Each structure stands twice: as structure tokens, then as C-alpha cells.
Amino acid sequence: MPYTIARRMLLSEQGQSWKKDLVTEENCPWSPLKASCLYGQLPKFTLYQSNAILSHLSVSLGFYGKDQREVALMDMVNDSMEDLRSKYVTLIYTNYEAGNKDYVKELSPRLKSFETLLSSNQGDQAFIMGNQVSFADYNLLDLLLNHQVLAPSCSMGTFCQKWAAFQARPKEVAGYFYAPASGLDPKVEEH
């Protein structure tokens, strides 16, 4: 579920409808089929991986940069976010008790490159690149929300400004969290 947040925010802001349909092992009629599927995921979709789906939606809806340079830079930033997300997921699911204190201590330095990038782009625009939101912005916001839950006292000044900028957007991405279809608390994603 954590990987769906950026996609749902992007779709919500663009007025695209989506439905949260939580599938569990108990209510999954196709569990036996999953073992034969690519990556063990459902055959209904042409794309199986979360970032591939996010990239496809971003290209389709015009959120993937205006030229090849921006595309390459967004991919670089998104890959960096996934590196941090991978460390976060490892901590949460396999090493929380033993690794939490060190992870939180190292978090501010890990976020520094993202903060530098945000603060160097168009001042208070708070976008990763240019003057328009991109798929990488949605993914970064998702990453921020996870880390705010994990380490609310961590220094995330630029990120907090970014969150405020998203809330102030005309179509208000923050409103996504309050949408009945999201089924989410506005500050905490289901894990």
C-alpha cells in the first residue's frame, strides 16, 4: 500500500477517479493464480511495478518533465528516493527495534540532498524541478509523510514548507487524504 500514495495523489489532483479496493489473503479469489504471475502480481494490469505504473501515469498526464534533461533529473531524484525508501522499508519490517535510533539519527543528512534541490528551485515554488508538479514531487511527499510519522522531531524544514505548498495548491493534494475513497488518516498511511 505505501507505494500507491503518489499515484493516488496524482490521480486525485487531476480529477481522475480511482477506487480503493483492499485485497487480503482471505478475500482474494485469485491467490493460486498469483504464483504464476510476473512478480507475483495480478494479471489484470499491463504494468506490474509501482514506479513503472507511476511513470506511465506521469507521462500520460504530463507530469514527467518538459524535456529529456528534466526527465533524466527526475529519474535520478526518484531513484534516490527509492534508495531511501528501501532503507525505510527494511527498518520498518525487519529491524525496527534495533535500528530505529540510528536510522533517525542519520535521517537529516540523508534528506539534505532533497532539501538542497527543493530550496534551489524557484524559491517558494517547492517543486523538484521547474514551476510544475511532477511525479517525483508526489513520490517525495509520500516519502516525507512516512518519515514524519517515524521521526516527527527530525529537522525537515524545507519538506515542511513543501507540504504547506502542496496544501495551498488550487486542487489541494492534501484534500486527497480526506477523500472518502482514500480511507486514510490525513497524516498516517496504512502499513
From TrEMBL:
Keywords of this entry: Transferase
Q: Which residues form the signal peptide?
A: none
InterPro entries for the chain: Glutathione-S-Trfase_C-like (IPR010987), Glutathione-S-Trfase_C_sf (IPR036282), Glutathione_S-Trfase_N (IPR004045), GST_C (IPR004046), GST_superfamily (IPR050213), Thioredoxin-like_sf (IPR036249)
All copies of the GST C-terminal domain together span 67-191
Query: Where does the record place a coiled coil?
Result: none
Q: How does it assemble?
A: Homodimer. Interacts with CDK5.
> Mind telling me what this protein is named?
Glutathione S-transferase P
What organism is recorded for this protein? Rhinolophus ferrumequinum (Greater horseshoe bat)
